[in-house]
Amino acid sequence: MGLVKITELTKELGITSRTLRYYEQMGLIRSERLPFENYRYYDRENIERVKQILVLWKMQIPVRDIIRIYESKDLAVLVDSFTARINAIDHQIVSLLELRRIINKFVQSMMQKGIKHISALPLLYDKIEKSLELKEKHKKEELSFQRLSELSEQAPPDLTIVDLPPMRVLSSLERNSGKSDIDGFWDWLAKSGITIGAPGSRTLFEYQQDDGQTVILHRIDRDFNNTGPYQDFEFDGGLFAAGSTYADDDIASFHTGMIKSFDENAYYEVDYSRGGFLGHESLVESVISPDSMREKINIYVPVKRRLPAAEQYDQYETVTDIALDEIERDNPVLCEYNVPLAEITPVNNPHYRILETDEAEFIGWIAARRLSTNVSVRIPFRIDIEFMADRESERFGYGSDEGSIRIYHGNSMFAVNMENKADSRLSKEAICFNEPLTGKYICYPRLGSINYNEYNTLTWIVGERHFAVVINGEVRYCGVNFPYMATDLYLQKPETVIIGSDGQGKKYFRSIKISQLKTTPKIIIRKGELNMAVNRSNNIIPIIHPLIMMHYGENYWFNGCARYVMECLGENDYDYGFFAGLTGDNFAQVYSYDRFRGDGVTDYFLSEPRGTNFIEEVFDECGYASTFVTLKQLSDNRSMYVNTLISYIDNGLPVIYNHWGKNPNIIWGWGVFVGYEDYGKTLLYITSEMKEPGRVTLDDMLHGELMPGQEYCNGWIFVGEKRKDVNLAELYRKRILSLPQLLSVKTEGYCFGAEAFRSWAADIENGKFDGMKPEEFDPWYMYTVYVCNLATNGSCCHSFLDRALLLNPDLKFIEEIRRLYEQMRRMWNEQNGEDLEAIGGGFNITLNALQDKNRRSRIAAKLREFAETADKIAAACHGE
After folding, report:
1. How do strand 590-592 and strand 381-389 relate by DSSP bridges?
2. CB burial class (10 A; 0-12, 13-18, 19+) of residue 872?
3. Model confidence over 547-567: pLDDT tens digits?
4. Cα distance between residue 331 and residue 489, in whole Å
5. 10 CB-near residues (< 8 Å, 6+ apart)
6. In this structure, which CATH number among 1.10.287.70, 2.60.120.200, 3.90.550.10, 3.40.430.10 belongs to the domain 314-517?
7. Full-prediction pTM beyond 0.70?
């Protein structure tokens, strides 16, 4: 057959395996897989096809045209492609010839008119402007500076990407005044015996501040004792685009052309700081000039790598029948860290202690309570853990995933024994993880099972060539060709390894070892795609942090969004607890008669037509104008609202969104847009406990198919100007006094307060879940969302009540309201075996419990006790 292995073919042709896979993905070539082989093989026909493709590619024939050529097999298509390429070259030639003719005309005019000094050039231009006309399509257009700019900018600058190292520098900025004194600085360098760096040595730079001052930087040794009058500081270095030009050229236009050239680059973009300006001012450095009569300079513009979209990469592949020693051989260890269990740092107060046996005992209760190993590594890495999970201590009292072992690295999670439920029929014992580059959540049921009540060994290898999970010596999963594997792994920043779990079950650790794996440097710079545009392509607001902290009971995410906006506006009094009280989310139990409507009061009001007025009223109470733009309005006026969003981001303000769509590529629920890329085609967002922004395309966000019942609540919220000052004490007072009205809301679709508890109890007792199959039962949407509602309110409304009483000391009954909500909290999970969780009606609910008449009757009775307490809260507001 004459088959050639992919690794051999790449060496022969001098191309990458990724290029071959891309051609195959595009349907241009085909490979074969031999039995028991993990590599692709190519026959002679396909190898010849690859060689033909490479010839066309070197002629800069686009891939889409290459596909047309092979699909049609018609010579006319090949001729058309060549003709189109010739026309493109002709266009470049015409532009260059036009520039040549104009320059030649200038030279002739200068000689004829005796121009000997550059200062007379504008007068010369003014004279020839009236007589010089361009040929062909521009033959009727008089010469203008704009046209000259267009012609010069059609030839993109020749740029390279460099990584300037961190360095200590002296500057021409005076210590006392902060002003740049270039003459004095130059003399001081000479007097101090500091040798000026040679051109091109990356020792001497200059840049221009926003106020127009030019500043000189000179690299110095780190042990240099600066006793002079000029500031020294640490230059952070980083990635820069470097372009060369002559100092007597139009530096400003060349600099603008450098910035524009990155607008369509697939791998790099200009690095704007969070204030909308460049991450560092552009640097200028003198270099050795090939023309001794003209000074040549390098201009350095800060750039950053783009986070590529998932569709730019091949689909990852699962590898079967692979041995652990092969995986270890292809992903070798660089260095190892044995983590001392006694030096692990608990995060968010989990239970953690060292036993007399030197083993560690851990209970997380909720996923936010974790263990920091205090060891940081970059991808690729390896984690080896020896652990035991105690079956008897599992209660499913705080949610699902009892028995899971989770490893966190940056925004990614890698976990085994995941997605387990109180009802074992619904448990998946899955391997679950986030793909490190794109963040995609991937889950493989049944592959993550462990042995309970005995020690297990777990190995995660997030390698350069393989992504593998090994449990008790068995390779449970191995994959290749993940998107992160195509990046420059050696440039990834180190992240601290965090260990976690979920639920009440005890976990024991005997050892934890973290290994930094070796990397092979990769360089990805595509040529010829630096097209130009004039507007800023990307920006991000300066304030970046998680939206909410679930550890603190911040479970109503709109209130986190509102706090985020107010923080950016400098309104520190409007925190999460304030908004959770103002909206009523932290005070009212909710219940829906017909369908899932969300998590609390805010979501319920938005679930009905014209419910968006509620959001605008909330911000109006705070003194601010706001506009809720529905998904339909966004779709009908897409360009206008995207430009509005860009304007908000450029002014440092986030835009709130709420989206409950069915498109699998989008985010859902509440969050804030904090930045944009590609002129708004891609949006940067923060939701939940994300520490760094995620990315979503505008097309996916405006996808029209929504979750049933969520048609009215989807949209963006723009918080505008401040209209009035607000009396904070009066705002708290108004909310407290209006609690009885809030707790008595009842519509055709839902109800709040005591009636919510009673309706919930009635549905349970009257057999709402009778006849339901396990696969039809969704605990969150059908039940535990209401448990979360009552648990959150009983535990987390107190900050608002305390502040209200502090500002309004005459409202003494607030103390009674506080006591009653505290009583609700104990009724939920701290009532000596009689609480809701203890009787199996809390987060640990099962379908069996809801279908068993005796057990559900007891749950319903407990919910009616909650109703009685809610009645007392409403009565307390009246002083009863």
Report:
1. unpaired
2. middle
3. 999 999 999 999 999 999 999
4. 13
5. 16, 17, 20
6. 2.60.120.200
7. no
